[in-house]
Amino acid sequence: MLTAMTNLSGKPPSFPLKTVIIGFGKIAASMADCNKATRFYPSFTHAQILEEHPDFDWVSVIDVDKTAQEMARARWGVEDVASAVEQLNNADDIEVAVLATPPTHRLEFVKSLPNLKAVVTEKPLGVSLADATTFLEYCDNRKILVQVNYPRRADERFSDLVAGGLEKQIGKPQAIFGIYGNGLRNNGTHMIDVCRLLFGEIMGVQALGQHEDHGDFPILGDKAIDFLLIPRSGVDITVRAVDFRHYRENGLDIWGTKGRLSILQEMTDFRHFSLAECRILDGEKEISSDQEGQQIYDESSRAYHNIYDNLAQSLATGCHLSSPGNNAKINEQIIEAISLSAKNDGQQIMLH
User: Contact at 8 Å (CB) between 293 and 308?
Assistant: First the structure.
């Protein structure tokens, strides 16, 4: 268990940190019953992590849904359950808030917790870039740490790729393709974040083609937009939206100078396709894409757990967050630029 070494918001945090989950739906709790997910992420929900993490004392749940409230009591043993912060028994003691709600009203929750030291929040930060900026400015003024749940930034497999594993596997990228679904501000922002993580910062964007209605999205007012990312590293990234009513996918296909890396099945399956002798022409090479491909990471990831480990370390020692709010704000700046490009018939938008 950690001991606080720094004073970030008036007084040092006290470990274990008194924690509330606000919004007790799928990502907060109910997906813990998804047996397939645990094959890739042993701890897949906020509830699973908080139930066992020694640095967090999970004491409260807020949700307006009575079924969710009962699940918090019966399944997870949380007694202080309410529909609003004002109804909690221990609101003044809460030091960490997990914001697993839609992006509306998050700032109101933060304002109502007077001794808050940190939040773990789902993306996006707000309903707009301006809303996200206001949220971050308020948290910064109160010295509240903001850790955003972009799990690939705490995933050992992606860290290995960033540290040289990608170039080792496939050489220099030559062509990069991405697929996402369920809305630009939802899974699309994960795709943008992973592209920035692997290929560097984005200096321009462009909306592509038609922008189809793929049904109701989890985030109100969201859209399905195909887009181009232009990273400073020089290899453009083409990303297409698919309709999740047919099937799910959120993945990347990277063709390099000496191989191909396919990261599919919600970015859990990493397969390497190597160079081989060309079967069509003498003296030429090809990528052996008709083969199954070598699975280069076959272990489960602690990414979601690592998000919380890192937050606790940051509160105790002042170390950098692995997925800070300012990083999430860059993703939302890119989303806003893509939306602007779509409104202007695919005009290329350069970022500063």
Answer: no
pLDDT band at 37 (very low <50, low <70, confident <90, very high): confident
Coil, strand or helix at 158: helix
Domain boundary assignment for the chain? 17-152+303-321, 157-299+334-343
How confident is the model at residue 6, as a pLDDT? 44
CATH class label, 157-299+334-343: alpha beta
**What DSSP string describes 260-285?**
EEEEETTTTEEEEEEEEE-SSSTT-E
Condensed to tens digits (0 to 9), the pLDDT of residues 126-180 reads: 999 999 999 999 999 999 999 999 999 999 999 999 999 999 999 999 999 999 9
Secondary structure (3-state) at 82: strand
Q: Are 13 and 117 in contact (CB under 8 A)?
A: yes
Angle at 180 between CA 45 and CA 151, to 5 degrees: 30
Decide: 152 and 194 in contact? Cβ < 8 Å.
Answer: yes
Note the CATH number of domain 17-152+303-321: 3.40.50.720
Residue 10 CB burial class (10 angstroms; 0-12, 13-18, ≥19): exposed
